[in-house]
Design a protein that fits this description.
Blueprint: E1 3-9, H1 13-24, E2 28-35, H2 42-56, E3 63-65, H3 79-82, H4 104-114, E4 119-123, H5 128-136, E5 144-150, H6 165-169, H7 171-179, E6 184-187, H8 189-192, H9 199-206, H10 211-231, H11 240-248, E7 253-262, E8 273-276, E9 287-293, H12 295-309
Parallel strand pairs: 1-2, 1-4, 2-3, 4-5, 5-6, 6-9
Antiparallel strand pairs: 7-8, 7-9
Helix pairs in contact: 1-2, 1-11, 1-12, 4-5, 5-7
The structure holds alpha-D-ribofuranose and calcium ion.
Alpha-D-ribofuranose (RIB) binds near residues 12, 158, 164, 166 and 239.
Amino acid sequence: MAVPMILDCDPGHDDAKAILLAAADPAIDLLAITTVAGNSTLEKVTLNARRICAVAGLRDIPIASGADRPLQREPRIADDVHGESGMDGPAFGEPDVPLAGEGVVALMRRLVDESPEPVTLVPTGPLTNIARLLIEHPEVRTGIREIVWMGGSTGRGNTTPYAEFNALVDPEAADQVVRSGVPFTMCGLNVTHQAAVTEDVVNRLRGIDSVLAEVCVELMTFFAGRYKSLFGFDAPPLHDPVAVARVVDPTLVRCVDANLVVETTGEWTSGATCVDLHGITGRPANAKVAVELDVERFWDRFIEAVRALG
Ligand code: RIB
Ligand code: CA
């Protein structure tokens, strides 16, 4: 039976691919796409979600626009990585995919209440929307199967030495969500960096005769250029689809139980996700932490999704 899921994202080159995998894979029933300020402003990431859905022909999945800033901190974007539009590379037309009339928290709560099965939330941006949902409607927790987040890292960060971007934008939201008691899985940089977009992956996409595959290649080409110049990567990591892959087939992403806490006060370390992989703190395990990706089967599943939507 397909897993009912809501994808909360900040498209974003890799978020766009997460949308494609979540929408196309038969293991998932994608109930909604919600957006949050992160890689770019809320306006731009929401337009980008509509753009990729229009290219993919996804017109029956509600898209709702959420938080335009973190719970407490000043907004910050990643236009160095994703470009001025938040999804630079392809030339997109005006999307013919509308926005849902509901706010994100109301939509999430309604969908959870209406679902006959507990709903999986997959945030691939800052956790602002998820935190607001849990703060405003704590009773919704019983209807949430788990939260599978692309964010954080068991190692170094990518935006500060110790903080990954999604965690750094809104550490307070991440802290609230981790402490909420809802089953939580973290797919951090340590595992998403295993999802390297190699030339072989790009060539497999080039082998799909569709506008969508062509757009994916253009997105990946831009993303690769930025990762090369900013980080010296020969093949950029496609972060966000890894979190979706964990829901598609949990055997694709191996996790360990560990204690996870989020730093919110450190002058130099705010946003750090402190994962006790070896149980040295004595604090109880409160999260599943992804440590290994089945790279070959991951890409097979992703390429199949693009092919199915083409
Ligand atoms: O650090 C990588 C994460 O930050 C990804 O989700 C990317 O889309 C950005 O949101
Ligand atoms: Ca993202």
